[in-house]
Design a protein that fits this description.
Layout (H helix, E strand, L loop, with lengths): L1 E3 L1 H5 L3 H11 L3 E3 L14 E4 L6 H9 L2 E5 L5 H4 L11 E6 L13 E4 L2 H14 L6 H15 L16 H12 L4 E4 L3 H9 L8 E2 L10 H11 L5 E5 L1 H4 L6 H6 L5 E6 L4 H10 L16 H7 L3 E5 L5 H10 L5 E6 L9 E2 L8 E4 L2 E2 L1
Parallel strand pairs: 1-2, 1-4, 2-3, 4-5, 5-6, 7-8, 7-9, 9-10, 10-12, 11-12
Antiparallel strand pairs: 13-14, 14-15
Length: 366
């Protein structure tokens, strides 16, 4: 199993990683910060792993014989809190430029210190020159098992009651409207996880994210930076109504510099990830996580700054209004999507469990 993190992107190793992975035929997964290091629409990609990773990625990691970690930290969002349960039967190979990162949380059986691009280049040369080839029969058995895990369709969108908008539907529609060719920044929370799960990134550096620090308020300034760097590109900020209010004063800067950013707000009228944990850990006793009665009209707020505000309340109008927003190429558009306030992010790792231990829905566990 190939497991890669943001270090592959930072180390300019994405092209080499893609070539090596395709040549070997092995399954691959990325961390939140590594999305785009390998094409997200490729059949060998199992999706993101970890706390809100896919069922197939987490199961493949847990049952792998060998895990090749490249530019990844083996942090607790991947390993969970009890590292003794992490990949219990696997030999761990860890490639990182920082020797202090090797065996920091999970002991590496084969530590390799070096820049990702240099190591991957040498590995690719060795694979191409080697007379020993991949055991295709064994690999086919492994892929058969992975396809069985895939059949569970862990990212299927739950059925909606009437015209209620599921947040996953917004991200899927966003992908279709942008044709997968946008720069996506996000804030931190449920919307961040939904974007990571449901918007496949085929190129590196298209997913701009505060995945290490987890900084609410990051999304809008990040989208602004992208728009300054690439004036003709689609710069999209996926946010929540909680995160967005931490830096909304930058509306003024966007007007001053005429930045045509598109802001997609998954408005669930709550600090959704906090509320989800309060549902799961505290029996739905909400403390300072819901505030529906105190929220502004976000469309009017955008208009007050001279931008365009669009409000979407029904699933039936989602595609049309998103198309309308992106048709305004020279305008900043805030799209306020009123999504199901009761929707949780799944899959979700069980606290203290192994990677195979997941909650797949409100009624289903592994």
């Amino acid at each position: 199993m190939i497991y890669t993190g943001g270090g592959v992107i930072q180390g300019e190793g994405s092209a080499l990683l893609t070539k090596l992975t395709k040549k070997l035929g092995y399954p691959i997964t990325n961390t939140l910060m590594g999305l785009g290091a390998f094409p997200g629409t490729h059949k060998q990609f199992l999706g993101m792993l970890g706390m809100h990773g896919t069922y197939e990625a987490n199961m493949a990691m847990h049952y792998a014989d060998v895990v090749l970690g490249i530019g990844a930290r083996f942090d607790d969002r991947v390993t969970n809190s009890d590292t003794s349960k992490f990949c219990p039967d696997a030999k761990i190979l860890h490639i990182d430029i920082d020797p202090a990162a090797i065996s920091k949380t999970v002991t590496a059986d084969v530590p390799i210190v070096g820049s990702v691009s240099a190591v991957l280049k040498e590995m690719l040369e060795l694979v191409e020159a080697s007379e020993q080839k991949v055991d295709k029969k064994s690999l086919a058995i492994w892929w058969k098992q992975i396809e069985q895990w895939r059949e569970r369709e862990c990212l299927r969108i739950p059925e909606s009651d009437g015209d209620i908008i599921k947040p996953q539907s917004v991200i899927r529609s966003l992908y279709e409207v942008t044709k997968g060719d946008a720069f996506i920044s996000s804030d931190v929370g449920q919307h961040q996880m939904f974007a990571a799960q449901h918007y496949p990134f085929d190129k590196p550096r298209r997913w701009i994210n505060s995945g290490g620090l987890g900084t609410m308020g990051f999304g809008l300034p990040a989208a602004m930076g992208v728009q300054f760097a690439f004036p003709k590109a689609m710069s999209v900020c996926v946010t929540g109504e909680g995160s967005f209010q931490m830096n909304l004063q930058e509306y003024a800067t966007c007007m001053q510099y005429q930045l045509p950013i598109k802001i997609i707000c998954l408005n669930n009228q709550a600090l959704g990830m906090v509320k989800q944990w309060q549902d799961m850990q505290y029996g739905g006793r909400y403390s300072h996580s819901t505030y529906a009665e105190s929220l502004p009209d976000f469309a009017k707020l955008a208009e007050a700054y001279g931008h365009v505000g669009i409000r979407i309340e029904k699933l039936s109008e989602l595609d049309e209004k998103l198309e309308q927003a992106f048709a305004l190429k020279d305008k900043l558009v805030f799209v306020d999507c009123l999504v199901d306030p009761e929707e949780h992010v799944y899959p979700m790792a069980i606290k203290g469990g192994a990677m195979k231990d997941m909650v797949l829905s409100k009624t289903e566990r592994t």
